[in-house]
């Protein structure tokens, strides 16, 4: 991790620093004050970065935490070392036998081809701004903005990203704001501007609050339990 990336991350890595940032954010936004008062402490887990880190995120998309762990274990055992050169030795049908759906098998193979061709250099991503890095990542087949933002948050430890397209974040904010309607992605991005440069901590706080409400650890008035429209998918906060 280079000096620029360290400057973006080191000051909110410890539990004590995260708590201090939560208190500061609570003073900026009443919805975050509600979430902070109710949700327990959390740590910032930084995962493996680079090619293997992105591939793992792709394999974990839209499945439960338990399923994600099982799929990754099976996949890693099947391919051996998770490198672009190793993955290029397997076709899509073989990758499916390691537990991936066909679309995910296509996507991880495409990422392997892209790195092997020099279309993406994971060692240089930390040198780029957030938006530059997102542009590099989303140019890859199967990598959308959500995946790119989550990669930068949890694999590079960047703390000022906020994946507002995440339905669990939208629902967590709705519950904390005591609102009847879930905010749109655009509206939540706009709201998150007031949380800079700690939007990643705000995201973790809202994920934690949402998870605790859904598990029953936090009780909110019944009228606030369900918003119109479909419920958030089972897409948990990535864990180390």
From TrEMBL:
It holds the Pfam family HhH-GPD. Its EC number is 3.2.2.21. Keywords: DNA damage, DNA repair, Glycosidase, Hydrolase. The keyword DNA damage applies. Gene3D superfamilies: 1.10.1670.40, Hypothetical protein, domain 2. It comes from the Bacteria. It is an enzyme of class 3 (hydrolase). InterPro entries: Alkylbase_DNA_Glycosylase/TA, DNA_glycosylase, HhH-GPD_domain. Residues 59-211 form the HhH-GPD domain. GO terms for cellular component: protein-DNA complex. It catalyses: Hydrolysis of alkylated DNA, releasing 3-methyladenine, 3-methylguanine, 7-methylguanine and 7-methyladenine. CDD domains: ENDO3c. GO terms for biological process: base-excision repair, AP site formation; DNA alkylation repair. One of its GO terms (molecular function) is alkylated DNA binding. The keyword Hydrolase applies. This is DNA-3-methyladenine glycosylase II. It comes from Frigoriglobus tundricola.
């Amino acid at each position: 991790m280079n000096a620029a990336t360290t400057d973006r991350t080191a000051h909110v890595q410890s539990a004590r620093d995260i708590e201090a940032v939560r208190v500061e954010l609570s003073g900026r936004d009443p919805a975050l004050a509600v979430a902070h008062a109710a949700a327990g402490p959390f740590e910032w887990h930084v995962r493996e970065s680079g090619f293997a880190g992105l591939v793992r995120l792709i394999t974990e998309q839209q499945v439960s935490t338990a399923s994600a762990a099982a799929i990754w274990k099976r996949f890693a055992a099947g391919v051996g070392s998770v490198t672009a050169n190793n993955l290029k030795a397997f076709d899509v049908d073989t990758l499916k036998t390691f537990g991936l759906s066909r679309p995910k098998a296509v996507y991880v193979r495409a990422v392997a081809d892209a790195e092997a061709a020099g279309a993406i250099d994971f060692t240089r991503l930390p040198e780029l701004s957030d938006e530059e890095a997102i542009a590099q990542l989303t140019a890859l087949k199967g990598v959308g903005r959500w995946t790119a933002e989550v990669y930068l948050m949890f694999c590079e430890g960047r703390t000022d990203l906020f994946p507002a397209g995440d339905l669990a974040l939208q629902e967590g904010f709705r519950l904390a704001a005591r609102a009847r309607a879930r905010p749109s992605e655009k509206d939540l991005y706009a709201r998150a501007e007031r949380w800079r440069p700690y939007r990643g901590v705000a995201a973790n706080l809202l994920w934690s609050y949402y998870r605790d409400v859904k598990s029953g650890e936090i009780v909110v008035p019944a009228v606030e339990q369900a918003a119109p429209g479909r419920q958030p998918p089972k897409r948990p906060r990535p864990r180390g």
